Amino acid sequence: MVDFRISEEHEALRKTVEQFAREEVAPVIGDFYEREEFPYEIVAKMGQMGLFGLPYPEEHGGMGGDYFALCLALEELARVDSSVAVTLEAGVSLGSMPIYRFGTREQQERWLPQLCAGTALAGFGLTEPGGGSDAGATRTTARLDGDEWVINGSKCFITNSGTDITQAVTVTAVTGQTPEGRKEISSIIVPSGTPGFTVSRKYSKVGWNASDTHELSFSDCRVPAANLLGERGRGYAQFLRILDEGRIAIAALGVGLAQGCVDECLRYVQEREAFGHKIGTYQAIQFKIADMEARVHTARLAYYQAAALMLRGEPFKKESAIAKLVSSNAAMDNSREATQIFGGYGFMNEYPVGRFYRDAKILEIGEGTSEVQRMLIARHLGL
């Protein structure tokens, strides 16, 4: 029989993060969101809890857990706020994971201890202006000049790239041509503060307002040749692997947001009265919330299965795409319904569902659009 119960260790972690999110994040995050301010104090506490090191071995300063542990933490954080959740998601699955997966021993020893401790963050520089989902259309270049890479180009929508604790950004760049005449794309670590590396002012965003997102530019930016991450010419393939894994993490975040909508509605409908009754007694409201819970349940099972396949070392590309697609849909649908249930209050930023609605849309875009997920699924069906 298939058993979907999680281990005692995973359940203990889930409860710990749930308590942290309710007691430490929920009371203050609305003010950070309104001010569009990065919550350094919350991120520091998350680091002290070991959340940034969850899937890494102790030799790198990690907690010795696994990727599923990270997903559980993301779900619980996103039940309260997605800005905090995506800071952790991007910090681990996109920031430090490429260094762990593909870095040399020296690169791992230099970067991972602080990244696992949460005292530093790293970014993932893939998307470019005009590129969008077509990551293979990379225009940023890097040429070898002696023992240095000289980088020119720009990246956009990069999370955790401009905070006071951002340590580095790993970028993809064209480093030559393959024998077949295609672009040779490699990954290179660029430390923060490197001359020629400019972080533009933060974006004015619709959602995720308490997270850090910037456009980056590189003008004759020189970094040591030793900053090449992994094998030259394998950067694109490496980042595709990272995105496959990251889709499971972002799916967990989407499930958390969708579950948060259910949580908030269950509290509200037992307090709010209309036409002489608590609105939770009306079948129309009950059916809405029942559908919301069904979406959460389905999406959670999808990311659980994708994570299980990944941890067993089995192919999981299709399943991670399904999980990301289903959870994104659940987050969007549930946040829309929650806003409707709350009525005018749902349109106010002081209520979490207002933030949930604003935060949900990016889940259909970031780390692979819903259209890209459908394309990946169709390919695995032989189409």
The biggest beta sheet is recorded as: 4 strands, mixed
Find the count of extended strands (DSSP E, 2+ residues): 10
Enumerate how many helices there are, as a single number.
10
What sequence of helices (H) and strands (E) makes up the elements? HHHHHEEEEEEEEHEEHHHH
Radius of gyration: 21 Å
Protein name: Acyl-CoA dehydrogenase
Family: Belongs to the acyl-CoA dehydrogenase family.
Keywords: FAD, Flavoprotein, Oxidoreductase
GO molecular function, one term: flavin adenine dinucleotide binding
Produce a short descriptive summary.
The protein is of the alpha+beta class. It has helices at 8-35, 40-48, 67-78, 82-102, 105-117, 235-269, 283-311, 317-342, 352-360, 370-380; strands spanning 121-125, 141-145, 148-159, 166-177, 183-191, 197-199, 213-224, 228-229, 273-274, 277-278. It folds into 3 domains: 8-120, Butyryl-Coa Dehydrogenase, subunit A, domain 1 (Orthogonal Bundle), CATH 1.10.540; 123-233, Butyryl-CoA Dehydrogenase, subunit A, domain 2 (Beta Barrel), CATH 2.40.110.10; 237-380, Butyryl-CoA Dehydrogenase, subunit A, domain 3 (Up-down Bundle).
Structure, described:
This protein has 383 residues and is an alpha+beta fold. The chain folds into three domains: 113 residues, Butyryl-Coa Dehydrogenase, subunit A, domain 1; 111 residues, Butyryl-CoA Dehydrogenase, subunit A, domain 2; 144 residues, Butyryl-CoA Dehydrogenase, subunit A, domain 3 (Up-down Bundle), CATH 1.20.140. The chain is built from ten helices and ten strands. A four-stranded mixed β-sheet has the order 1-4-5-8, with helices on one face. A four-stranded antiparallel β-sheet has the order 2-3-7-6, with helices on one face. A two-stranded antiparallel sheet has the order 9-10. Strand 2 and strand 3 form a beta hairpin. The mean pLDDT is 95. Its cofactor is FAD. One of its GO terms (molecular function) is acyl-CoA dehydrogenase activity. InterPro entries: Acyl-CoA_DH_CS, Acyl-CoA_Oxase/DH_mid-dom, Acyl-CoA_Oxase/DH_mid-dom_sf, AcylCo_DH-like_C, AcylCo_DH/oxidase_C, AcylCoA_DH/ox_N, AcylCoA_DH/ox_N_sf, AcylCoA_DH/oxidase_NM_dom_sf. It holds the Pfam family Acyl-CoA_dh_N.
